[in-house]
């Protein structure tokens, strides 16, 4: 009797074992499963619209890249507690449910990059991934990262955030990532690097910030980056970077700052001094302003080249647009020429000259459009004949040649009086120590034209009568 019961128990156990084996070792349709070197489920490039539900629980690696997945649900991998590698890149994922990776305490590498419709991420999406060392979030269309999204990820070493639309990063976003060594942030839209943006990254080795829109790096932005070896900030909109900002980077070996819009005057002095102490490799820093230093390398300038500061009241407002990748400043050449002395212009007009959008002062509305187009290009030097021909197009028209001949017949006393009155009017164009307003200068010119008009009208009549 006892033996019958034992045999029955063994038979029951065998039946139960046979029923369980197909469930645990079964492989999802359209997937390939293998156990060496580690239990793996490979389902890439199969046109899948949803994550298979029959994934073996003992799987350590799951490859689901290059499919058409749209959602990662909280139950998708809930039974895969041994999972170490999960690839979900190059899909159409637009939503990751809260807790989608909950329980994956052994996960080391997670790649959800190249999902361009994944615009937002839940603040708790990666909660519990304490063993994760590599996270791919590149090309996901992300415009921001929620506060606390990387909280508790103490093992993370590689973070890929490039090729997104990130405009700014919250302070202390990376505070828990003390072991992070590589941070890729290039090709985003970041404008300002704040003091606390990289706080906590005490072991960071490589920081890639190139091809953003950075216009300013705050003074304490690199305070915690004492182990940083590579810093890429090329092709941004930087004009000034202080030596004090760079001082904490004591381990820096590779620095790339080319493709920016450097102002090489007294504001570059501290950075120039810092480069004298820097022993690593650096790109050239091509000067854009002032004009006489344009194209020269800031690092190779002499100390006397950096004396004084260029006055550029509104250069930043016109410069740092989303398309400012050419590395060139707008022209600082005065489009008004010498018609009005520069010191007679008010602040608004000076800034408009710098921005290349200044208005031409003219009494002829038909000429105004022509004059504005001419300011965009540097006019070539005219020959003597061209200059003489241009004089015939002046306010007196073709009568200027007749006047020249008729002036020879006038009395010397009259000519002397004419010259003295012209000289006195020229003196009015000179600037006093106190700059005059734009309106004052225009009025001065208007009065000069009126005096000349009254002087020349009688001459015209005299010349006509003589002829």
From TrEMBL:
Any GO molecular function: ganglioside GM1 binding
Compartments (UniProt record): Cell membrane; Cell projection; Membrane raft; Membrane
InterPro entries in the cross-refs: Leu-rich_rpt (IPR001611), Leu-rich_rpt_typical-subtyp (IPR003591), LRR_dom_sf (IPR032675), LRR_TM_domain-containing (IPR050541)
Biased composition (Polar residues): 354-365
GO biological process: positive regulation of Rho protein signal transduction
Membrane disposition: Lipid-anchor
Biased composition (Basic and acidic residues): 366-392
SMART domains associated with the record: LRR_TYP (SM00369)
Glycoprotein recorded as keyword: yes
Predominant cellular place of this UniProt entry's protein: membrane
Keyword annotations: Cell membrane, Cell projection, Glycoprotein, Leucine-rich repeat, Lipoprotein, Membrane, Receptor, Repeat, Signal
PROSITE patterns noted in UniProt: LRR (PS51450)
Signal peptide (from-to): 1-26
GO CC, one annotated term: perikaryon
Region spans: Disordered: 354-403
Family listed: Belongs to the Nogo receptor family.
Record protein name field: Reticulon 4 receptor
Species the sequence originates in: Anabas testudineus
């Amino acid at each position: 009797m006892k033996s019958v019961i034992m045999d029955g128990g063994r038979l029951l156990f065998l039946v139960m074992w046979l029923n369980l084996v197909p469930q645990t070792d079964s492989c999802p349709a359209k997937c390939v499963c293998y156990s060496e070197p580690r239990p793996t489920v490979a389902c890439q490039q199969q046109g899948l619209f949803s994550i298979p539900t029959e994934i073996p629980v003992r799987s350590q690696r799951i490859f689901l890249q290059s499919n058409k997945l749209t959602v990662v649900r909280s139950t998708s991998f809930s039974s895969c507690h041994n999972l170490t590698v999960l690839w979900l890149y190059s899909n159409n994922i637009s939503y990751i449910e809260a807790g989608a990776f909950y329980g994956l305490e052994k996960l080391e590498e997670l790649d959800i990059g190249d999902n361009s419709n994944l615009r937002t991420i839940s603040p708790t999406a990666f909660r519990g991934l304490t063993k994760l060392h590599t996270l791919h979030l590149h090309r996901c269309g992300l415009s921001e990262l929620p506060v606390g999204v990387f909280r508790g990820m103490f093992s993370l070493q590689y973070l890929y955030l490039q090729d997104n639309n990130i405009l700014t990063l919250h302070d202390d976003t990376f505070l828990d990532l003390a072991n992070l060594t590589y941070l890729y942030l290039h090709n985003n839209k970041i404008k300002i690097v704040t003091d606390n943006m990289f706080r906590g990254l005490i072991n960071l080795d490589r920081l890639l910030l190139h091809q953003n829109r950075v216009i300013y790096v705050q003074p304490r932005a690199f305070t915690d980056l004492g182990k940083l070896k590579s810093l890429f900030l090329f092709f941004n909109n930087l004009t000034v970077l202080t030596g004090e900002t760079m001082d904490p980077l004591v381990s820096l070996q590779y620095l790339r700052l080319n493709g920016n819009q450097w102002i090489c005057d007294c504001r570059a002095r501290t950075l120039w001094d810092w480069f004298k102490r820097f022993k690593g490799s650096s790109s050239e820093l091509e000067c854009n302003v002032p004009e006489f230093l344009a194209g020269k390398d800031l690092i190779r300038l002499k100390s006397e080249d950096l004396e004084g500061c260029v006055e550029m009241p509104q250069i930043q407002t016109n410069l740092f647009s989303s398309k400012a990748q050419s590395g060139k400043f707008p022209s600082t050449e005065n489009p008004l020429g010498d018609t009005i002395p520069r010191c007679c212009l008010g602040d608004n007009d000076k800034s408009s000259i710098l921005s290349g959008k200044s208005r031409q002062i003219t009494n002829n509305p038909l000429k105004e459009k022509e004059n504005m187009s001419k300011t965009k290009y540097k006019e070539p030097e005219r020959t003597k004949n061209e200059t003489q021909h241009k004089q015939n197009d002046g306010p007196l028209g073709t009568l200027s040649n007749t006047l020249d001949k008729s002036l020879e017949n006038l009395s010397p006393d009259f000519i002397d009086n004419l010259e003295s009155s012209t000289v006195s009017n020229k003196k009015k164009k000179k600037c006093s120590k106190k700059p005059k307003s734009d309106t004052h200068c225009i009025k001065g010119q208007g009065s000069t034209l009126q005096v000349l008009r009254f002087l020349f009208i009688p001459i015209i009549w005299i010349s006509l009568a003589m002829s």
